[in-house]
Amino acid sequence: MSLRTTYRARAPLRVSFAGGGTDVPPYPEREGGAVLSSTISSYAYATLRPREDGVVAVQSLDVRDQVDFDVADPIVLDGRLDLPKAAIAGVMRLRGARRSSGFDLFLHTGAPPGSGLGSSSAVIVAVIALVSAHLGVELTPHEVAEVAARLEREDLGIRGGLQDQYAAAFGGFNFMEFHAEKVVVYPLRVPAATVHELEHNMLLAFTGSARVGDHIIEDQVRRFRDGEAASLEALRMQKEIAHAMKEALLRGEVATFGSLLGEAWTQKRRMSDRIATPQIDEAIDVALRSGALGAKVTGAGGGGHMVFVCEFERKHLVAEQLIALGMSVSEFTFSRDGVTTWRVPS
């Protein structure tokens, strides 16, 4: 290891098409979950520069905060940059990790927390991969995702599902199954023409507000534990739709994929009355009237990003209507690669 070597990493954000919610414990343990998602060309970025004074300095451009601590001291999770601090601590505990003489860690993400694109999990995946490279630990994508999921859900106590960590680690189009003791990731070989057609026909729109502190996931879990019939049926339908969308994707049936996306949203909003908002409902309504084949929120709901599959010749009309509602609209491309690390001379 040279102190003149700079380490870099990037982990992709994702859009979730169907099955979201079935990856949230305790549903996987009781009935088994299934999610279809893909990563996009927007990333969580991280840079690490070794230093020799025994200090770790973590700086985040997104929250405009910096924390410094001695590499030999216990890492304290106190609400300031806890995601990267937990990732650093987790990697340092791994077998085979060599001692560090300190480093600077700089973070930047293409979307804020609560955006519905899995940005928080992408950050922790990027930091795990980066610090592992610095400390000489070799991890597979599955191991990176496992460490990230354990740190987020157990060490940090953040409620949520398990799909985001695996999406960021593996990259590309994936069909994931969630069981009591394991997660199985099936990378999908989607025909290039289908990928191009989806990129041609899809839009991503930001509602203007992130989903923060609304307890949507807690409400969803409570309804499942209480055996609420509508929520249970919606979760089971989510799994069926995820399977159907996977088949449509592999067959290149983009119109069918779009209509199933709309059905996934219909079932998702039944899982909790906090998922939909008047703004989201209005956006989907005007989009469908303007030429969208289907649309849904990409995360837990309540805000963040929405994804739309449109008739290409009318996609511009959908975009105009969403912009008129005050939303930020963009086209996007899919990313085939999961978390990636590399080195550059300083």
Task: List the main descriptive attributes of the protein structure presented here.
about 350 residues, 11 helices, 4-stranded antiparallel sheet, globular, Ribosomal Protein S5, domain 2, Alpha-Beta Plaits, 8-stranded mixed sheet, alpha+beta
Descriptive account of the structure:
- This protein has helices at 27-30, 82-92, 119-134, 141-155, 163-170, 192-201, 216-225, 229-251, 254-268, 278-290, 312-324, and strands spanning 5-18, 33-50, 55-60, 65-70, 103-109, 173-178, 183-187, 202-206, 292-297, 305-310, 328-330, 340-345.
- By secondary structure, the chain is an alpha+beta fold.
- The protein has two domains: 5-189 and 340-345, Ribosomal Protein S5, domain 2, CATH 3.30.230.10; 192-330, 2-Layer Sandwich (Alpha-Beta Plaits), CATH 3.30.70.
- The strands form two sheets. Strands 1, 2, 3, 4, 5, 6, 7 and 12 form an eight-stranded mixed beta sheet that branches. It has a four-stranded antiparallel beta sheet with strand order 9-10-8-11.
- Strand 6 and strand 7 form a beta hairpin.
- It starts with a strand and ends with a strand.
- The mean pLDDT is 94.
